[in-house]
Amino acid sequence: MSASRLLYGTTTFLGAFLLFLVEPMAAKQLLPVLGGSSAVWLTCLVFFQVTLLLGYLYAHWITRCQATTWRRHVYLVTLAAAALVLVAQRIFPAEPGQGYDQPVTTIFSTLAFTIGLPFLLLSATSPLLQVWFQRAKGGTIPTGCSRCRTSALFLL
Length: 156
Known about the structure:
It contains five helices and no strands. It is elongated, with a radius of gyration of 17 Å. It has 156 residues and is mainly α. The longest helix is centred in the C-terminal third of the chain and has 35 residues, at 103-137.
């Protein structure tokens, strides 16, 4: 196995591992405020599944765009915005306490403002790396990358 293939596979595995690790951690932070009902868990699950789908759509869109420099700029700007959101959360922590009468919107807004953009970019990591590997090496997308994602899911 070549070194670049190992690097792509390891990065895909770590991205998927982090993706599935973040979900329960973020949901557990909302439980003390909103209660431990199944509605909180299910709403968090819906949020993460929608964000995962949006991340896959983002990866599809960014790889299908014809302008290479523009594509790089969009990716770097969204990456910088996600880092800025994470830094802003350390300075101004989100308080999910408002809106007890509408817990679904409270959960969606809290998750969107805290980890929405970083989660979206993390979910786009694996498809982007597979396409970049395919473009760099030529040929088809390696099946080992999808196996890395699956094995990261089973580790959790």
